[in-house]
Amino acid sequence: MSLYGTMRTGVSGMNAQSNRLSTVAENIANANTTGYKRASTEFTSMILPSSNGAYNSGGVQTQVRYSISDQGATTYTTSGSDLAIDGGGFFIVEGANGQEYLTRAGSFVQDKEGNLVNAAGFTLMGYEYQAGVDPTVVVNGFDGLAKVNLASEGLVAEGSTTGSMGANLPSGAAVGDISTTSLVVYDSQGNTRILDFNYEKTAANAWSVEIVDRTSSTVLGTSALTFNAAGDLTTSPATVVANGALISPLAGTGANLGAITIDLTKTTQLGYAFNSDGGTIDGNAPSKVAGYQIDSDGIVYVKYENGKLDPRYRIALANVQSPDKLLPESGNVYSQGVDSGVIITGFAGSGNFGEILSGALESSNVDIAEELTAMIESQRNYTANSKVFQTGAELLDVLVNLKR
Questions:
Q1: pTM here?
Q2: What are the residue boundaries of the Flagellar hook protein FlgE/F/G-like D1 domain, all occurrences included (predicted)?
Q3: Which of 52, 139, 223, 284 is spaced 20 to 30 A from 67 at the CA atom?
C-alpha cells in the first residue's frame, strides 16, 4: 500500500464532500427561488490496479445532477402575470443577448416597454395571436416567436366587420307582413349606428330581409330567405352584407362604416310569434385598456374597460426528451445540452405540455430538512477523510524517521 496513495485518497474524499457541501449550500440559498431545481452530488468510485501483495487505494469522483423534471409545489399569488406550468414543459424566454432559453421561473411583470420579464430579467416569448386562428408553431425551433408585450395603447376603437342575427319568422304570417328588429354596430371611430332588420313575407316558406340604416333610412343590403317544410332555412350562403359605404359618415366625424357580413343561419320559420336572439357584432366603442388575462391555454388577452377581451399572444412552451440533462445557466434558465435531446415547441394542454396557471408560481423543489441532513453527513465524512489524510501523513513521518 502506498502512503502517498492513502493521502491522495483522503484528499479525493475531502474534495468530493466539499462538492456535496457546495450543492447543499446552493440549494439552501435558493430554497425560496421561484422555479429553482435542486442540485445533488452523485459519487462514483475510482479503482486503481493492485497486485496480490499491495493494494493501491483509488478515490472518488463526483457529478452534479439537477432534478429539473421534479415539479415544485404550486403557490398562488394575486398577480395575473405570475405563471406556473402544471405538468411538463418550460417557458421560452429571451435574454439580453437575444438568445432563447428555457425556464420554469414564471414571476413575470411588465417592464418600462410593456414586455413581460421575470425576476432575472428574461423576456417571455410567444406567438402573435388572432381570435380563432391558432398560430403556426415551428416545432423544432424558435422562429416566429415575439416578445409578449402588453403596453397600453390608450383609447382603442374597432369598426364592425362581422356579426350575426337569428330570428324566428312566424309561419302563419300573411304575405306582406313585416317584422322588425335592430342591431347596434360601430364605425371606424367607434361611433354607434343602428341597423334595422325588416323581414317581409313574400310567399309560402319565403321571406326577404332588408337592412336599413335608421338615421338615413338608407337600404344597406337585402337577401331572400327560403325555408323547407320543417321551417329550416335553406338559403345558401345564409349571409347578407350590409354595405356601410352607401351611407354618409356621421356629421363632423369623418368616420366610415365598412361593409358588415351578417350571418343569418339561426333564422327559422315556425308557428310561433316573431322574436330575435338579439344578434351579435364585433367591434367596440372607444375604451381604455384595463388590464389583461392569461388562460390555461396560454392565450394572453388585453382587457378593456367595457369588458371586451382582445387576444394578442399565445405563450409558447418547449420541452426536451431528457430535461434533467439540460444545462443550467445563470438566472434560473436552461439551455440545450448534448444529452438533453432536441427542443420541441408547442402549446399548453397539447401533447406532453401541461396547463398554464395564471396567478400562481412554482416553488423551489428543495427540501430544507433533507439538505440539513446532507450537510451533517458531509461534515462528518469530510472529517473522516481528513483523518485518513492525517493518519497517512503521520505514518509517512514514521517512515522518514526510520533513518534516524
A1: 0.73
A2: 84-136
A3: 139
8 A C-beta contact, residue 60 and residue 16? yes
Task: Give the pLDDT confidence of 323-372 residue by residue, as tens digits.
Answer: 999 999 999 999 998 999 999 999 998 888 999 999 999 999 999 999 99
Per residue in 264-309, pLDDT (tens digit) is 999 999 999 999 999 999 988 888 888 889 999 999 998 888 788 8
Task: Report d(CA 62, CA 40) in Å as an integer.
Answer: 10
249 with 191: CB under 8 angstroms?
Answer: no
**Alpha-carbon distances of 347 from 135, 325, 328, 355, 356, rounded to whole Å:** 10, 22, 23, 9, 10
Residues 6+ apart with CB under 8 A from 327: 334, 335, 336, 337, 340
How far is 95 from 267, CA to CA, in rounded Å? Answer: 54
The span from the CA of 253 to the CA of 404, in Å, is 112
State yes or no: pLDDT of 238 exceeds 90: yes
Question: 236: closest CA among 249, 247, 223?
Answer: 223
